[in-house]
Specification:
87 residues, three-stranded antiparallel sheet, 3 strands, binds zinc ion
Amino acid sequence: MLEQLQRYEPDQKVQWLTARDEHVYPLCAAREGKIFSIDEAKKEIEGKFCKPGDPDDRCRCCFISVIELDDISDEELAELGIEIEIE
Ligand SMILES: [Zn+2]
């Protein structure tokens, strides 16, 4: 997951996703859906990531990037094909 984080821009945000099944470790499950800055996510991973020292490396968590709508202009949204209706 650390390698995955290194591909993101430092000011991006990411959301932690687990595999959402009965094999997910409690440590991972507590992070499901949480949104972190890249720095926060790195800290989460360091030292206490999933089951420390798991020899099989069975963690299947991943990050998805989170886009802050405030950071994006209407034109950019239109290019992405995203339409947002504000009531
Ligand atoms: Zn995990």
